[in-house]
Amino acid sequence: MLRLSTKGQYGVRAMYEIAKCSGLGPVTIKRISEEQHVSVAYLEQILSKLRRAGIIKSVKGPGGGYMLARDPKLISIGEILRELEGPVAITSCLDPKEGCVRVDSCVTHLLWKSLGDNIKRFLDGMKLQDLLQGDQFVALASKSGSAVKKGFSGRQGR
Amino acid sequence: MLRLSTKGQYGVRAMYEIAKCSGLGPVTIKRISEEQHVSVAYLEQILSKLRRAGIIKSVKGPGGGYMLARDPKLISIGEILRELEGPVAITSCLDPKEGCVRVDSCVTHLLWKSLGDNIKRFLDGMKLQDLLQGDQFVALASKSGSAVKKGFSGRQGR
DNA sequence: ATAATAGCTGAGTATATCTGTCAAGTATTT
DNA sequence: AAATACTTGACAGATATACTCAGCTATTAT
Question: Which residue of A3, A136, A157 is in closest CB contact with B145?
């Protein structure tokens, strides 16, 4: 359950590759393809989206390729995935494009919203820089292993 | 991204309905269908799986229906979803059925594993009882909003 | 016994999404 | 102007989703 599409996965791997080689000039799509084992044609689709989103920049012509548009500390995994797969939306009624008819009457609405918010917070907190450093991830809940409950979810940072 | 299938969603809603009416004798599939707006035929599929998993019990014949097999404090949302949709597996290489060829060489492996573990912890910590109480959910990360990082993920409970 | 109720099961199907490929560009540099 | 590299949109096969349907089995009330 809750699988990520390959587009998102490859997108993050591609971004990693670009970040890794930054400073050595633009990274060609061919290189990304070879290093990360993803076809050039498929990468074109993915990188095109990321470029339009302003996460990477491209340089045309011989010697061209892709480079980060910002410092890797300022690029989150969440942002990359959102551009490629749309926002986190556990259920269709939480998708901003669709909307929920009976928000208040639905017992589970808040459950899915809360889960979605957690995931979002995780993904937005994780930066490309962290991937580069191999600095990796002990989770949001460092504590007990059981969720923190409270009367109501209310506003949560976001 | 990361959408849950309707089977999982309906399953949780059905479990809620059964839990809500527990103490009034078995709940018929027809009632669940009407209250939760899911077709009888589709519910049969869903409830059948949950019954075989031992989460609910059924009584045949007139006056029959479904009831919880355990205290709602002991039934987690994670367990319900796992029976209906399989384990959380953000990527195919983290699916126990498939396995990963290059675990160590893959930079993103740990990222997805960590995200998956978080989700799992959230879902397993959330019990049917919590839904009943409308006692809902402030999330795993009560703190800063940024993920807690550490050198390596190491063993985490499970 | 038997009729009515209620759950049980597996097969089947339409639709949508995913996971790509292909072809024909356009822009830039040497 | 030739070579390199990115850009775009169309399209297609495979898989998964979201169901329905038909016919069955078990249980209880009369």
Answer: A157
Q: Which two tokens stand for residue B136?
A: 């809902």
Which residues of A fall within a CB distance of 8 Å from B150?
136-138
Q: Which of B127, B99, B131 is nearest to B113 (CA)?
A: B99
Q: Both ends of chain B: CA-CA distance in Å?
A: 26
Domains of chain B with bracketed CATH: 6-86+127-133 (1.10.10.10)
- Enumerate helices (H) and strands (E) in chain B, giving the number of each: 6, 2
Per-residue confidence of chain A (158 residues) as pLDDT tens digits?
999 999 999 999 999 999 998 878 899 999 999 999 999 999 999 999 999 999 999 998 888 899 999 999 999 999 999 999 999 999 887 776 666 666 656 788 889 989 999 999 999 999 999 988 875 544 433 322 333 443 333 333 33
Structure tokens of B139?
Answer: 């999330």
Task: Give the integer Cα–Cα distance in Å for B10 and B25.
Answer: 21
Residues 31-60 of A with CB under 7 A from strand C: 39, 41-42, 44-45, 59-60
Q: Which two tokens stand for residue B133?
A: 């109480």
Q: How far is CA A73 from the centre of its chain?
A: 14
The residues with which B66 forms a beta bridge, in sequence order, are B27, B58
Instruction: List phi, psi (to 5°) of B22.
Output: -70, 140
Question: How many residues are listed for chain B in this entry?
Answer: 158
Residues belonging to chain A: 158
Rounded CA-CA distance B155/B54 in Å is 30
Of A110, A111, A125, the CB nearest to B77: A111
